[in-house]
Structures are given as C-alpha cells and as structure tokens.
From TrEMBL:
Keywords: Oxidoreductase
Name of the protein described by the UniProt record: SDR family oxidoreductase
Biased composition (Basic and acidic residues): 1-13
Pfam families (alphabetical): adh_short_C2
Entries under InterPro entries matching the protein: NAD(P)-bd_dom_sf, Sc_DH/Rdtase_CS, SDR_fam
Origin superkingdom: Bacteria
Membership in a protein family: Belongs to the short-chain dehydrogenases/reductases (SDR) family.
Disordered as annotated region, ranges: 1-26
Signal peptide coordinates: none
Keyword Membrane in annotation: no
Gene3D superfamilies noted in UniProt: NAD(P)-binding Rossmann-like Domain
Amino acid sequence: MTTDKYEKIHEEVPGQTQNQQPGVEEEMTPAPIFDDKNYKGSEKLKGKVALVTGGDSGIGRAVSIAFAKEGANVAIVYLDEKEQDDAETTVNLIEEYGVKAFRIQTDLSDDENCQNVVDEVIQEFGQINILVNNAGKQFPTKDFLQITPDQLQETFSSNIYSMFYLTQAALPHMTKGDTIVNTSSITAYNGSPELIDYSATKGAITSFTRSLALNLIEKGIRVNAVAPGPIWTPLIPATFDKTKVKEHGDDTPIGRRGQPAENAPAYVFLASSDSSYMTGQTIHVDGGDFVGS
C-alpha cells in the first residue's frame, strides 16, 4: 500500500461524530485502513497466542490482523454490545489468515472481569504469550475545573487500572520469551490541554511500562509500548466535533492523520524476537509529532 493511498484517505474524511465511547468502526466514513496488503507475514509469531484488548476495531484490529499474518492465534476483548459487529468482523478477518480467533465482551475496569478473560483464553488456547494492553477512552474537557470525579474515575479505570488488573491476571501464564506491549500516546509526551485526564493516564502507562519491564526482566518477559499520534480510529469521531474530526492530523509534520495499519508493524516488532534487546522502551508512530527523548 502506497503513501499516496494514506494521503488520499486523509483528504476524503468528512466531518462526523458518534455518540458512544469508544466508538464503532462500521459507522466511520471512509473506513480506516486496518490491513496493509503489502505487509507479508513471515511466521514471526507462529504458534503463539496473543490477547489484544480493544481488539475489535482501530489499532487493536490492525494489530490483531498483523499478528494473524505472523501465525499467532488471537483473542480480542471489546467493551460493549454496540461493538459486536466490529468484533465479529475482526474475528473473520483474523481467521482468513489460517489461525484461530476468539472474542470476549467485558468491561476491563473490573478486576474480576480481567481474571475471567484470562481464564477463558487459557481454556480456549492453553497459553498466553503476547499481551497487548490497548483499550482506552478519552473525554475532551476544555475547562479543567469541569473534569468531574466520575469522569476521572472512568478514564483511569479504563485506561490504566485495567492494565494492572489484566497484566496481573495474565502473568502467571507467561514465561521467558513472552512479551507485553502497552498502548501509550503522543499526549503522554506533548500533553493536551483538552485531554488532561487522558494524557495523565497515558503518562502513567509510559511509567508503568518502564517499571514493569525492570520488574520482569529476570523472568525474561519483555515490556514495551507504542505511542500513537493522531490515528483514524473510532475513538476520534466518538470524541471530537465534526470540525476537529475533519482537521484531525493536519498539524503533524507529515501533514495527515495516520491509519491503524501504519501502527501494526511496531506491535509485531515488539511482540517478536526481532526486538529481543529492547525492554521498557516506547516506539513513536505519530507522523513526526514528537521528536525527543
């Protein structure tokens, strides 16, 4: 898939909104690019089982498909019944590559639900080798004083508490050579005046990644992160007004929003032995938006 294709999609996105979090991919116009047909798998993850949260759509869908191309069986977790069609589509897309897929609907902000997810995946596949903590929500709020305790609780519960719960549930089933990949964000590094609580969770995810990497290093389990910039996922129309959706990504150095398929190879790299000398690190897939240390 050429860069021209990505640029064309960027230009074709009209203003649009959705009224639910974290959004539904089927309602987006045009549809995000989640499968780069030029990306050819080479069995980097053959025989492994990946658990991907927020795997029904957006970056999670693209990552799940890329993992399937590399030979992994994939379990996806999604939040709401409204996302069921997205989840079923993703399962079918994964299985087109000759591997097995499994979907689970639940709210990961509850620790018991996280344990149940792991139990179901172990029952289905017998192992977990790759954990991708990707699910998240954001609620733009211009006035800092208007961030309510309920909003703060929901944002932190969805974005960072869930990572603690699910990782704690999964770790007893992971061994040397297994990997964890967390989804951080450009906002953890550049900040965002209207996404203060969301940015705070992403900063926490970055620190969580670094600290957990050190904690697990003797067990041979590597922990890294990807920090996407403005990517065309359901979270965007579910979050912003029509004008901001239309202009989304215009201010990056590359001059456009990214597509989920442009993130997926970074997750494959971090999940595979190609990144065997990396842990506690973050890959920035953001159109040049963040350049720093």
